[in-house]
Amino acid sequence: DQQVKQNSPSLSVQEGRISILNCDYTNSMFDYFLWYKKYPAEGPTFLISISSIKDKNEDGRFTVFLNKSAKHLSLHIVPSQPGDSAVYFCAASLLTGANSKLTFGKGITLSVRP
Amino acid sequence: DAMVIQNPRYQVTQFGKPVTLSCSQTLNHNVMYWYQQKSSQAPKLLFHYYDKDFNNEADTPDNFQSRRPNTSFCFLDIRSPGLGDAAMYLCATKGWIGELFFGEGSRLTVL
Known about the structure:
The structure holds two protein chains of two kinds.
Chain A: E1 4-5, E2 10-14, E3 19-25, E4 32-38, E5 45-51, E6 56-59, E7 62-67, E8 72-77, E9 86-93, E10 102-104, E11 108-113
Parallel strand pairs in A: 2-11
Antiparallel strand pairs in A: 1-3, 3-8, 4-5, 4-9, 6-7, 7-8, 9-10, 9-11
Chain B: E1 4-7, E2 10-13, E3 19-25, E4 31-37, E5 44-50, E6 53-56, E7 64-67, E8 73-78, E9 87-94, E10 100-102, E11 106-110
Parallel strand pairs in B: 2-11
Antiparallel strand pairs in B: 1-3, 3-8, 4-5, 4-9, 5-6, 7-8, 9-10, 9-11
């Protein structure tokens, strides 16, 4: 049973426009959410995170929005650049506890067209 | 400089021939993880260590074992690889805010 779902496998966006990547989760106990970016033949790299006490976190071109009532979060990239083309994983965690673990979604492949 | 280093990057083995993948970290983090990722699937946690305390996921096959001789190193042993074990194996450590730092992965091919 997937607890973190990224239902769209891919997204194609024109350079300069906004990319919106969506993620849904089912476990209401999750209280910390992260986005990772992965290029081919490399490991995922941490991009941005948000705690459940917030509904928005911004870092440069990247903004993550959290809607707890809908169990939904989204990553906005604006403006999108060709170098943003990668697989993006959404992950969720229970922040408390030394043994907290991340649960990942399947990822979404973003292609930014020049 | 790479902070989580995995070796080898690519490993080819034969069906049933044991394989060991290694991971080292320069971050001095207490927690280390091994994930398995197959194509178009979410990374799947196999096990993790908090210091030397080993935590196995309930659905991790017995074929997969791990060792952590010290804080810096962690090994994944696959005792008898099957075709279904072909995947990318990702090692990660856990940072202060709960984010994971991943290595570049070891891609295993089973012939």
